[in-house]
Input
Amino acid sequence: MKPSAAVVLGRPELRYLDDVIVESLRREGFCGPVSRRDAHALAHDVLSDQRIDEQLELLSRSTPLQGRRILEVGSGWGGLVVRGRVAYGLEIFGLEPSRAEFSSAWTVSRALLQAFSVPDHVIVNGRGEAMPFADASFDVVYSTNVLEHVDDPIAVLNESLRVLRPGGVLQMVVPNYGSWWEGHYGVFWLPHLTPALARIYVRLLGRDPSYLRGLRFISLGTLRRWARTKADTAVVLGWGEDVFAERLRTIEFQPWAALGKVRTAAHWLRRAGLTDAFIAMSRWFGWVTPIVLTLRKRG
Output
């Protein structure tokens, strides 16, 4: 699947949105986890054409996207919705709350929609726990780095399956708190830290732990348990283990959100001849990150 436009969101006249995103991150406390410089890098990343292309390519491995009605749960700044429509011709919609703590994301998404003459109604104001859509409204439901932020992850999973048509595909990309990496702070992690121990650990690293209060510490084991409760509704197609192994073996992944540190670690594993051993241990102990849960709805 190739985009019809080489550059969409990277237009120079839209660079001002980086500052809007950074200010939003500062108000939400995210500039505690990262420096202001890193916040600017993150702002650039979230509206990166290349990053969005990578997300769509990963999703397209599990299901065709052309001619499908797609919903992004937690569409954030709106980059994937806008680029998906403008560069790929996809019928993709977004769901994002506009309440106070998410107001800047809503503002940025509206600016992007207007800049590319995309109708406002394609990004809907709403929460994943109570989606304002009819049953079986979409062929594909997608979410990335959202489930760990919501009030009720199980409700979001239930709603995502409700609005999905029989035979449709749900893909959720979720950070694994049973792994060795924490992407919000961009630091190596200790698997299965409790929230209390995580706050101590983050303080020891010289970081502000307040951002942790809003995170759900979801692990691969947690998601497996939730998925088993949906066995009558959906079949699991994968957990992202193959993607994790591919990235470690090839080291061909971009350093989004401080992943340059992970890429450096992957190089050292390769030089030590330990890559395959680490992949095997990650499968056994549930260290795979991110989790890429992919389900197909029965029926």
In short: The chain has a mean pLDDT of 90.
